[in-house]
């Protein structure tokens, strides 16, 4: 039997959910494989309508979803409502991308004479890989769980999804699944388009099931390694797209510290303590110059931290890790600077915590990600020290620079130095709050995620697709999008990108 | 010291090449990392000019390259000249793709109000991953070796390359490297843009070097697994793009057998014996219907096989494997049908060989790839038998269907059944001879290659790129292609694909 725990109180309760048996996992994956074939024949417009229906269904279940998630995650209703809106928006955005059709990367090379002699007709397009297993995170019950980017992008691609319910929010997972399932059925999607399994063993079995063709994962490096080890036992490797830990360095230049240290302290405080610091894009290292302006920024941030109340962490494991990691950071030489007020009661609470070190001292040990409201101020004497220090720590999803307009050359050099170490470069803002849009990239380089793809934004769909080429195919065999008479999507024809005419 | 062997005679000779020491490997990889930074700042047009210069340089060294490769591979001058032309063409094609700029997947989402509230400016583009290690194949000294698709696509992406010289053609590798190096220097490319290492240990060390960011490989499953094991010892995983074994089933429908069995026998014979059958796209299984028409096709192919002379295999290992695999196939139940004439002398020669089995008997053991002039005819009673049998054997780079115009429905169903099992579907042709073009796909489902990418065609460049997003970046920090005033490449602006205006 599966239990659920309210992290605000530490009180557990039984649910009527059961762990999925090995036989059930196999049956669910097999049904997903059957759905993959049917989905393919239903085409893009059907899938777009299904995604739109799912977006509507999320709104219909909003109240129940938010209240369930509140008591399973301790996240605020405001945050959860925003997250649900984001997931609904994402479904609609992906529906529009599927309709637009560029994601297919359709290309036609007609037969003809070439510098290498006569060549056959070759046409290429991306097709869905097949059923996808999705492992969501504890901290995003609606954005990276049974609802969210991985599921939406896989369905958009045409891949059925089998989600693993998160152990920290099983009831939210179940309700999310039921909401998606009802929406899928309402438009006539094949049974097996969306599935769910419960329990860690079921999850491990899922990624070794022969019908699963790719895995999406958001969570810790350790959990990812366990899943990858299971995947490695398969006779055939399958892609694993993992969005793992990230330390997210933020650099304040001397100019920025001099010009607006109070504003940056406030922004940084909000960014590192929002959602109790449980965001993969939370700034974990803040590089602040030595000297008076930097001192002012650090003491303003320390003062905001000291005055703050405790936040609620998602579960007892994360709560336990917070203290353990803080201990390791202090052991490695970090100095305690500030700590907010402790909360009373049995909940998994922790006060915002600020440590300090220097750029010359910074090591991989001092850059361990602490999932929760923790930030390490890193004092530096020169930008060279910053660049060297960032080269010594693991790479990240993001890197952020705060600077002033008259530091243009410094910022260009710094951005070029940071680019190999991060997937997204943020200027005069904060890395938390990831825009869901066409141009977004949330990933790369390792360990921030698999190097070459994103888990947020329209191009997240590319992870669940593989190319197929057709050589001298009769028109009846070709997908509609590759026939000469289809002018509805952008295609590359004989090397030239051609926009649709209708 | 490194030796070279002429497979036509089995005679070995010394070279003045030396195995690369561990220190030299590290220095070469470090120089490549330095070149990566310099290449980035030189921009796309510079790289396109470098690729064009390399294409010209190949022509300049044509005679020497072909004669060197002839004596190291036993491939004919005609075949080698064609292969060299293909590699030169490919360099020019990639240069045009780099100039065109779509490969960057540039996208701009301007800041503004959205259904989720105000959002920042986000811009995305692909950037080179960094130095790439390339391991070429024995059978394509110019198309998949120090010259060829992996090297050309990585350089096109902006990634310096360190190639491992192939043990079967070290002198060809050295001359290829010198040709590329001279061309790179002639346009002022940074030192380290192209490098080479010699010896298996140097290759293993190369893929574990911290400066290497991705690996391209063309060769056997066994060699790939050894390299992947070495890569797995790295603290950070890097992408491995392997183009491995492939059995390439070909299906002759009843209609096609009845209409043109002699022509298909001739085409099939040429396809399975060309380059002595040493092509990853060689049809290894030919499904032929039972009955008189199929009997006629099989006996015509057997007769061509019986009459044929021996081919020269690339090296003693491949020659030894041929006999071993033939033995395993017979052990597994395949029946010998035809065998060409043996050659005299000490060369690594083997006559074309034809075996036979049935669709109901076909197993993974009977579908082992034999690298050389070997084909297994698979007799079938119904298309259902064919589909079931293909489901039992490893997946492939290609699948081919020969049919007649009045079998449209049968062919559409068959193509849909074959699609999950192959990267390229060929109709009324042969899988050997891979067009180098925009729409080509040479890859797809494991073990044919890494699932999601190609090693031939323009999109091969995508393997060596990763996305980066810039949020609220000052124009001076952005790559030229992401600035508002750059209208030279296709970009997606606020969700709309916009073609260049100049």
Textual characterization of the structure:
The first copy, chain A, is an alpha/beta fold and 502 residues long. Chain A has 2 domains: 254 residues, Aldehyde Dehydrogenase, Chain A, domain 1 (3-Layer(aba) Sandwich), CATH 3.40.605; 179 residues, Aldehyde Dehydrogenase, Chain A, domain 2, CATH 3.40.309.10. Chain A contains 12 helices and 23 strands. In chain A, strand 19, helix 12 and strand 20 form a beta-alpha-beta unit. In chain A, helix 3 runs parallel beside helix 4. Chains A and B meet through helix 3, strand 3, strand 6, helix 12 and strand 20 of A and helix 3, strand 3, strand 6, helix 12 and strand 20 of B. Strand 21 of chain A pairs parallel with strand 20 of chain B. Chains A, B: GO terms for molecular function: oxidoreductase activity, acting on the aldehyde or oxo group of donors, NAD or NADP as acceptor. Chains A, B: InterPro entries: Ald_DH/histidinol_DH (IPR016161), Ald_DH_C (IPR016163), Ald_DH_N (IPR016162), Aldehyde_DH_dom (IPR015590), Aldehyde_DH_Superfamily (IPR050740).
Annotate the secondary structure layout.
The structure is a homodimer of 502-residue chains.
Chain A (H helix, E strand, L loop, with lengths): L2 E4 L4 E4 L7 H39 L1 H12 L3 H24 L6 E3 L2 E3 L2 E3 L2 E7 L3 E4 L13 H9 L3 E4 L5 H17 L7 E4 L2 H9 L5 E5 L2 H11 L8 E4 L5 E4 L1 H20 L11 E5 L2 H16 L3 E2 L3 H16 L3 E5 L9 E2 L2 E6 L15 E7 L2 H10 L3 E7 L5 H11 L3 E6 L37 E7 L19 E3 L2 E3 L4
Parallel strand pairs in A: 3-22, 7-8, 7-10, 8-9, 10-11, 12-13, 12-19, 13-18, 17-18, 19-20
Antiparallel strand pairs in A: 1-2, 3-6, 4-5, 6-21, 14-16, 15-17, 22-23
Helix pairs in contact in A: 1-3, 1-5, 1-6, 2-3, 2-5, 3-4, 8-9
InterPro entries (chains A, B): Ald_DH/histidinol_DH, Ald_DH_C, Ald_DH_N, Aldehyde_DH_dom, Aldehyde_DH_Superfamily
Protein name (chains A, B): Aldehyde dehydrogenase (NADP(+))
Pfam families (chains A, B): Aldedh
